Amino acid sequence: MEQKSTTKVPDASLTQKGVVQLTDVVGNSDTLAVTQKLVQEIINSLRENINVKVHNTRKINGKMLTEDIALSAIDIGAKRPGDIYLSAHPASDLAKGEYIADGAVHTIDSTVGRALNNLSDAYKAAWGIKQNGDKINLPNLFADGRGVFMRAGLTPGVIQGDAIRNITGSLGWWNQGLFSHARGAFNGVGNNPPTSIQLKKFDGYSHYSYATFDVSRVVPTANENRPLNVSMIPIIYLGV
């Protein structure tokens, strides 16, 4: 009887020919082959992902998205040149583009000078930014050497002079007694006979011989007018 011999075909791999088994799931096998349907599903999925991504020909504030880019506060609209605000950071720790609004002068062709000069004419007029020859100055929020307090107003840059609330007191006399009444900012000083105006002798109505005026008897005082405050640095943002 004639006997038939068969040769087993090996499984295909990266190093040899052979039988390939199909698969319809994504995996990491080196011996399985994906079906046409699975390939099409992968392509469709990639297309959907690409459609929701920002194309690399797009720009953000003129910067191409072909590589990693550094965005400034101006790029994302968080700040604009000329913004003025108070900073809790010391002068040695200011961020790029921040400058102390102390009236410092810069040359007109310097980075800071060009940024200042590019501000609108209305802005420069409001904040006292002036060109003098080849120099231009930052705004100065240290009027008379003192830091000013920021306050809401319809016209920017207007400095309002300091003032205090009205201080009141009263002086008066009873019968013939000189300064027998002293209240508020006035302080009566004990009498010394004779003090009565007409009788020229001490009587029961003459309490004080004269009065002093002392504001500290009514309100807290110092060598300047000021509210309760904490010191911060006035900053102008130029973005350069």
TrEMBL record:
Q: Which domain of life is it from?
A: Bacteria
Stored SUPFAM superfamilies = Receptor-binding domain of short tail fibre protein gp12
What does the entry give for GO biological process?
symbiont entry into host cell; virion attachment to host cell
**What protein name applies here?**
Tail fiber protein
